[in-house]
Amino acid sequence: MPETQPKIAAIDPVWSRIVEEAEAAIIEEPLLGGLVHSTILHHGSLERALTYRMAMKLSSPEMSGQLLREIAEEAYASDETLGEAARADIVAVYDRDPACLRYIQPLLFFKGFQAIQSYRVAHWLWRTGRHDLAYFLQMRISEQFGLDVHPAARIGRGIMIDHAHSIVIGETAVVGDNVSMLHSVTLGGTGKEEEDRHPKIGNGVLIGAGAKVLGNIKVGDCSRVAAGSVVLQDVPPCKTVAGVPARIVGEAGCSQPSLSMDHNFPSHG
């Protein structure tokens, strides 16, 4: 281990840090030793750990953990960007969520992170034409994690979903890189049309708790959607919108609102 660990750290610093934290966690809390060993220390890579975690969380009498693990392993082996996105998501959660003090926490405990990694496998299935299996994963993700994300939706990397209750992301929605959103966010449609009908969220956007963004509209890069807002029209880049229906109430307040996680905006008058 002493000879190989520096090489692992140089090649994959995220996984190396997760392993180090896992070893320390067992010393601090021996009762979690079984979970930490089975989820992290028994595996040689983050991808393998993710496939195991996903299988354990989503397995049911309808589909065994072994089958789910084989599906996920095939996805990670076929598309290396899945693992790259997972690493970016872990770093995003650690950087933006003050409750996240270690890299192992999203992997072991945070359902927003676990749900998005499971969605990424479902999206891979969708892209490869295995739609029914993708729908099955969507169903299990919704049942287990409380997030309903259509497998056809396109979601970038560096995603942080805090608390993650009642997130809904529709079929034709697009979410850019480095987006942060809180619980009860909906990226939905406004009618029964079957074409492109869901929002397009730019890079670096911050979406507050309970916000609803509806229809085939654009939310520009580095903008903010205030908590509880209902957005029905395009939002320019670097602006803050609030209200029902949402209106522009000011600038975004900083260059990267999704990183600062600042939901405050100046009052008028």
From TrEMBL:
<dbReference type="InterPro" id="IPR045304">
    <property type="entry name" value="LbH_SAT"/>
</dbReference>
<dbReference type="InterPro" id="IPR005881">
    <property type="entry name" value="Ser_O-AcTrfase"/>
</dbReference>
<protein>
    <recommendedName>
        <fullName>Serine acetyltransferase</fullName>
        <ecNumber>2.3.1.30</ecNumber>
    </recommendedName>
</protein>
<keyword id="KW-0677">Repeat</keyword>
<dbReference type="InterPro" id="IPR053376">
    <property type="entry name" value="Serine_acetyltransferase"/>
</dbReference>
<dbReference type="InterPro" id="IPR042122">
    <property type="entry name" value="Ser_AcTrfase_N_sf"/>
</dbReference>
<keyword id="KW-0028">Amino-acid biosynthesis</keyword>
<dbReference type="InterPro" id="IPR011004">
    <property type="entry name" value="Trimer_LpxA-like_sf"/>
</dbReference>
<dbReference type="InterPro" id="IPR018357">
    <property type="entry name" value="Hexapep_transf_CS"/>
</dbReference>
<keyword id="KW-0012">Acyltransferase</keyword>
<dbReference type="InterPro" id="IPR010493">
    <property type="entry name" value="Ser_AcTrfase_N"/>
</dbReference>
<dbReference type="Pfam" id="PF00132">
    <property type="entry name" value="Hexapep"/>
</dbReference>
<dbReference type="GO" id="GO:0009001">
    <property type="term" value="F:serine O-acetyltransferase activity"/>
</dbReference>
<comment type="similarity">
    <text>Belongs to the transferase hexapeptide repeat family.</text>
</comment>
<comment type="pathway">
    <text>Amino-acid biosynthesis; L-cysteine biosynthesis; L-cysteine from L-serine: step 1/2.</text>
</comment>
<keyword id="KW-0808">Transferase</keyword>
<dbReference type="InterPro" id="IPR001451">
    <property type="entry name" value="Hexapep"/>
</dbReference>
<feature type="domain" description="Serine acetyltransferase N-terminal">
    <location>
        <begin position="14"/>
        <end position="118"/>
    </location>
</feature>
<dbReference type="GO" id="GO:0006535">
    <property type="term" value="P:cysteine biosynthetic process from serine"/>
</dbReference>
<dbReference type="GO" id="GO:0005737">
    <property type="term" value="C:cytoplasm"/>
</dbReference>
<dbReference type="Pfam" id="PF06426">
    <property type="entry name" value="SATase_N"/>
</dbReference>
